[in-house]
Amino acid sequence: MKPYLVHPPRQSAGVTLIELMIASTLGIFILGFIFVMFQSTQASKILSTEILNIQQNTNNAFFALENGIQHAGFESTVLNGPSHNVRFPATQIFAAGQIITTTTQGDKTDIHLRLQGDELASLRDCAGQRIAPETLTNMTYTLNDQQELICAIQRETSGTTALPITEEVILADNIVFMKVIDIAKDQNTLQTQTAVTNQANPALKTLGMHIQLIFKSHNPVRYKAQAKEINLLGQNAFEANDRYYYQKATRFVAVKNQRSAS
Q: Alpha-carbon distance 254 to 173, whole Å?
């Protein structure tokens, strides 16, 4: 009978250095992929939020601008009044009878318009306040140094005496550029012209205004600065080199109420 050979139990082998390196490398790749995907998702979420904010800002800005421009020169219809004609006298900014004009300083264009209150229509200014009958009101739309679209309201108690600005309203923010090109027709020559409402010429009938705004995101949306160039109306392109998102918005607004000098 052959004797059985009893072998001692084999010791279980541990993880070798090569296996550990391979496992660590795979783990690093997986963690890196998860981190990249997380960053990409977060960046996409931030960009989507900023685009929605800009769209809301765009709607707010153009709603206010359109409402003001389309009501420029609104004619009073005060019951039993001595006259149904709005008195629009000549001032420092406006020619006699002129209801809308622009002033430009560098790259910034301001829009100035005026109208008069009506007992029947309950016309309101850009602050939402009702304009009293027989009250001439001037409104100026401008960008301030904080990149906010401001409506400055100036109310007059008579046709010639201008009061100080009584109220300023923030209509939209994060607007880095505002350009206005006005389109008018000369009543004498019947020729259409552009960029003319800043001239004190009552023969020019303003047909409308081409408004271009550039909005900037509230927060950075890129990991590093990126150069960008945006084409503009009638001038050099807008340029920036940063981590923010920019969007251009352009709209034409018709001027409906034209009056001759009274």
A: 24
Phi/psi for 36 (5° steps) reads: -65, -45
Q: What CA–CA distance (Å, rounded) separates 170 from 76?
A: 27
The residue range of the domain holding 233 is 47-254
pLDDT for 142-169, tens place per residue?
999 899 999 998 876 554 455 566 788 9
Q: Is residue 130 part of a domain?
A: yes
Partner residues linked to 133 by β-bridges: 117
CA–CA separation, 229 and 66 (whole Å): 27
Instruction: Give residue 253's identity as a one-letter amino acid code.
Output: V
Residue 206 DSSP symbol: E
**pTM, two decimal places:** 0.74
Using DSSP, state whether 75 is helix, strand or coil. coil
Query: Does any domain span residue 77?
Result: yes
φ/ψ of residue 64, rounded to 5: -70, -45
Q: Which residues, in sequence order, are bridge partners of residue 117?
A: 133
Amino acid identity, residue 133? P
Task: Give the C-alpha separation, 214 to 54, whole Å.
Answer: 10
